[in-house]
Amino acid sequence: MSAVLPVLSARLTAAVETTFGLPGVDPELRPATKPEFGHFQTNLALRLAKIVGLPPREIAVRLAAALEVSDLCAQPEIAGPGFLNLTLLPTTLAAGVNKIGGPLRERGERVVVDYSQPNVAKQMHVGHLRSTVIGDALCNVLRFAGYQVIRQNHVGDWGTQFGMMVEQLLDEGTEVDALDLDGMQLLYQRSRKHFDSDPEFADRSRLRVVLLQSGDSQTVEIWQQLVEYSLTEFDRVYALLGSPLTRADVVGESAYNDALQGIVDELASAGLLTESGGAQCAFLPGFTGRDGSPLPVIVRKSDGGFGYSATDLAAVKHRVDDLHADRIVYVVDHRQSLHFQQIFALARAAGWLPPTIPAEHVAFGTVLGPNGKPFKTRDGGTVYLVTLLDEAVARAAALLADRPGLDQDTVARAVGIGAIKYADLSNDRSNDYVFDLDRMVAMTGNTGPYLQYAHARLTRILDKAGDSPTLVTVLTEPAEQRLALLLGGFTDTVVQVAETLQPHRLCTYLYDVATALSSFYETCPVLSSSGEVRASRLALCAATRKVLHDGLGLLGITAPAAM
Ligand code: ARG
């Protein structure tokens, strides 16, 4: 919550050791739940009562006497049955605000983030929105926390469906050059139908996959065209979304093709494979279905083809061996949880994923429509991401239409796209959420536009003030103390998000800052005050603006100077 927190915690630990001879006790110091409890509180004395054999209040009194924090806090207070409350000195609060900085120094660790992962020949849908928005935010946060970040866009560009599509195209005599994105999607649907209804076509499609995997030039050429169309479309969506993903981050499933045989061979020689119904499978302890039957990882299908799992195993190996990952993060919807648990377990069993390298599935829930069911168009079709983004920008433009002197296009884009991203990120990612544009673009409540507006209002005040703000020196009012306390916790909050991979914690923090800012406005005049108070409050405004600007930036949201 605040950078002083670790310091105070260490001093409490030391006090427990000198007073009771107990080393290394975690005081579990927490932000106070009410202003009258100061800034931080701990139930340490209550927890020690049994161990030490003294009444909690007695313990609290002794601890308070032994605790050396007079450089940072007012005299510690004891409340209720033995809670210890700490109140920071205004100078401590001011120091916390005055040293808010940028990204932390590189810690010499690399994190690979697998995210976005749209599929070739299909339009991106709301599920890919979540992966892209959460993935971008996590990359920014991890970078801020000192990691070197390697993005991997695991595009679905390989598999049976491409055999089907190429075969259908050749059957129909359609020129691949004549296809646009919709044409591709329709071709996919026709080939799927054909595949499901005509066993002879299905056989040819499987042979076509083999041709593709073995590099047959005619097949590869058509496939490459399909991939190229799709990647161009993905680039367009990323640009609209303001995602930094580029072609250089694309390492599609096809990239692992040549490694797949080796994966199967290694697993076989490690004794990890069993033949089951003609397929090569790994059965791992602890993976069973509802009926108790063992759940396999199929690494080679009965038709000889390699599947999604083999590709993911090769990807793990590549990320550890070639990219030298110290941590691997997968931003994929929760329906693939079992898949990733199995991949991680098998990769560990095979020795490809050392125990020192964490692999984490950052699972997320489903985007729901107004009816509370997975988001679909009125006629049950897929909701395209581009349509939603365009709609959000139009909505924002309508809201901003009456504001003079704005660069309407730029601001509407920042607000519309920001609204969608914030709505997605501010929910605990494991939950489903309802896609409700009206609520997302609202200027009040826990929304992106509300935070953007708070930032723009601060910019206006600071511009009006004229003189450039210096340092926070005076913090007398509770409202400005509360704001300062929060601001001082910015870096810690971001570091916490880098650990937990939960962007909603950063959203909650920024919303708390904006709420504390409006209480500050109510009780602490800024422009109409004078002297040192005015200078200090302007500095507090500048720090708040920086935190909102940088915090939104980490979430992938632009904060316009005016709106
Ligand atoms: N393309 C897949 C899909 O749309 C997601 C890929 C996730 N990443 C991975 N390494 N398996 O469902």
TrEMBL record:
Positions occupied by motif 'HIGH' region: 118-128
One CC-aspect GO term: cytoplasm
Primary site of residence: cytoplasm
Gene3D superfamilies registered for this protein in UniProt: Arginyl tRNA synthetase N-terminal domain, HUPs, Isoleucyl-tRNA Synthetase, Domain 1
The protein's assembly and partners: Monomer.
Family named by the database record: Belongs to the class-I aminoacyl-tRNA synthetase family.
Protein name: Arginine--tRNA ligase
Species lineage: Bacteria, Bacillati, Actinomycetota, Actinomycetes, Propionibacteriales
